[in-house]
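Duplicate of #3305? Posting structure anyway:
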């Protein structure tokens, strides 16, 4: 199932109109197309466009900085290089007066000073260690050709000038030529935009590679590198960066690449054609694409809230927390056997772009047998526009791939937001608010459905009926006689069941008629033989809250046996309803005339009550897997 994130990247690259090779600066290694890549801290990796290998070039700065901090620590590196935001003026080299310390770790003087701190170790010389550090960040080994190293060395005029300036003030003790050759080797290393997204993603994941899960950098190192990228990075070359992007980033004009790190969320890399008017400026197309992603995904620091997994509470199969509807042992066994076909995912708190992407990641890793997915958002406090867009796209993809999508919330505000966003974004979703409860579960259309329910129990009950209709339609009542053999009666022997049936009254109710009103004393146990009934309670402000809808073969009325001995819900007929009733008078008479049967019946009622209690605990959110 294609991710909406991938779809957005594909659309963005497809919308870019590449220029001709003649339009690109002759000194640039970047192509004329646009390529994008996103690596989330959860391990998802998306790429779009042509992944052309380009030299690491100017993006070598953060790699050198990271290795120097790993070797020597933040304090020693801070003594060697400052973190003063300075415009990257190509016509001027600056050092701190009095100390000769470079002002930033990202510009040429800082890169040379930090590379000088890196020494050979473990049988590897400095160049090999720099390439090893890059390999850890991108998750694969990469090495330049000798010709590429020579070309990179010839191109680093400012780096050479910076190195000799540092040598002249005593910061570098050795001849700079060897140092320049080692840095040229790193700068010449071929990488794709997908590699660079993983580099940025490792920084976003606090030093842990997002795909392999291996720790590449210490958290202290990541903090130092991100601080430098934030203070001395793209703000020094792009005056609108803080306003439009606001995240740590750096670029390579020669390679046409830009990276941005969204800490705790993802790394982004973009590659585009060079600026034909300024070979030293970042790629305009790459910057424009990055700004679009930040806007669409709401990744600016003022919007990217919480960790991607912060909103994800838990997920479980429907059979692990059933609806509470009274079921026969055979049905319960069937639901358990096919439990992997229906899962519930619970969300809470704020839901933004990253949180929906994390949810989609979880969904993609659910069993291949999945047929129905229930998204419970009752505990969600707010949903961003980007999250609504992504949710609409994800729901559409899920439906297209044959999955039922069920949304559970206390009101329709969240689903209304998703539907409005879908319409504005050109995404087609069926109306989830139409009432499909009246469809016969044994004969309804079993194609992918989009539904909304105002309680988890109703959603799970609907999913259970779908599961039965798909995998065991013979277990759904096909007649009033079958429905009369309710699960409650199936706990009894055949002889006891027939005796109990003979004691039951037949009652018929018309559409809308109230069968039992909340607060009434126990009046008996009702078995639905045809039609449907709706159970409602009273919520805050006196509003009526629908708790569930019961179908043929299910029972109601028994909950009034508990404390305080009153009917907890109002039961109303939906359409014409027929029932068989074991009245309170008959039940009390059973204890006198048939004590063994009465005891068996009470055991069955207790068993069903515990099932309903488990559902209630889940419904109120007290039970978490």
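Output from current build:
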């Amino acid at each position: 199932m294609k991710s909406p994130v991938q779809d957005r990247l594909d659309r963005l690259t497809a919308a870019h109109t590449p220029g001709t090779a003649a339009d690109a600066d002759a000194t640039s290694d970047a192509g004329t197309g646009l390529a994008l890549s996103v690596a989330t801290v959860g391990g998802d990796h998306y790429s779009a466009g042509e992944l052309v290998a380009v030299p690491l070039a100017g993006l070598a700065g953060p790699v050198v900085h990271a290795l120097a901090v790993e070797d020597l620590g933040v304090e020693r590196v801070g003594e060697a290089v400052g973190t003063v935001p300075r415009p990257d003026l190509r016509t001027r080299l600056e050092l701190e007066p009095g100390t000769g310390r470079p002002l930033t770790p990202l510009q040429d003087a800082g890169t040379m000073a930090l590379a000088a701190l890196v020494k050979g170790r473990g049988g590897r010389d400095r160049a090999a260690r720099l390439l090893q550090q890059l390999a850890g960040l991108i998750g694969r080994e990469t090495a330049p050709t000798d010709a590429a190293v020579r070309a990179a060395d010839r191109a680093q005029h400012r780096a050479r000038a910076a190195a000799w300036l540092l040598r002249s003030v005593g910061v570098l003790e050795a001849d700079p030529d060897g140092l320049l050759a080692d840095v040229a080797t790193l700068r010449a290393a071929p990488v794709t935009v997908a590699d660079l997204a993983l580099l940025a993603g490792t920084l976003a994941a606090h030093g842990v590679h997002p795909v392999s899960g291996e720790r590449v950098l210490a958290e202290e190192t990541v903090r130092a590198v991100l601080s430098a990228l934030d203070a001395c990075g793209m703000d020094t070359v792009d005056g609108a960066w803080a306003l439009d992007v606001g995240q740590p980033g750096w670029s390579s004009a020669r390679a046409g690449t830009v990276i941005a790190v969204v800490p705790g969320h993802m790394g982004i890399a973009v590659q585009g054609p060079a600026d034909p008017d300024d070979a030293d400026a970042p790629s305009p197309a790459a910057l424009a694409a990055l700004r679009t992603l930040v806007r669409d995904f709401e990744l600016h620091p003022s919007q990217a809230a919480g960790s991607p997994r912060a909103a994800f509470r838990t997920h479980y199969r429907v059979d692990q927390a059933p609806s509470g509807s009274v079921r026969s042992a055979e049905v319960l066994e069937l639901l358990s056997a096919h439990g992997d076909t229906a899962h519930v995912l619970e969300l809470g708190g704020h839901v933004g772009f990253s949180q929906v992407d994390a949810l989609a990641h979880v969904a993609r890793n659910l069993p291949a047998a999945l047929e129905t997915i229930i998204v419970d958002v009752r505990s969600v406090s707010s949903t961003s526009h980007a999250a609504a867009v992504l949710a609409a796209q994800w729901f559409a993809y899920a439906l297209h791939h044959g999955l039922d999508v069920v949304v559970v919330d206390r009101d329709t505000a969240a689903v209304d937001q998703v539907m409005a966003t879908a319409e504005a974004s050109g995404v087609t979703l069926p109306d989830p608010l139409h009432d499909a409860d009246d469809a016969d579960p044994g004969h309804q259309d079993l194609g992918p459905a989009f539904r909304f329910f105002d309680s988890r129990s109703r959603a799970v009950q609907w999913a259970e009926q779908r599961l039965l209709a798909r995998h065991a339609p013979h277990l759904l009542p096909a007649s009033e006689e079958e429905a009369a053999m309710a699960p409650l009666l199936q706990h009894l022997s055949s002889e006891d069941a027939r005796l109990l049936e003979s004691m039951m009254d037949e009652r018929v109710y018309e559409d809308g008629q109230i069968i039992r009103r909340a607060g009434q004393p126990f009046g008996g146990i009702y078995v639905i033989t045809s039609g449907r009934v709706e159970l409602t309670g009273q919520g805050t402000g006196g509003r009526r809250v629908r708790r569930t809808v019961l179908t043929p073969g299910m029972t109601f009325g028994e909950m009034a046996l508990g404390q305080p001995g009153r009917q907890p819900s109002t039961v109303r007929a939906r359409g014409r309803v027929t029932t068989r009733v074991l009245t309170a008078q008959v039940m009390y008479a059973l204890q006198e005339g048939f004590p063994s049967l009465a005891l068996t019946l009470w055991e069955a009622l207790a068993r069903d009550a515990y099932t309903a209690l488990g559902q209630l605990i889940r419904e109120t959110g007290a039970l978490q897997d």
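Confirmed duplicate; merging threads. The chain has three domains: 4-297, 312-475, 480-619. Confidence is low (pLDDT under 50) at residues 20-27, 436-443, 621-625.
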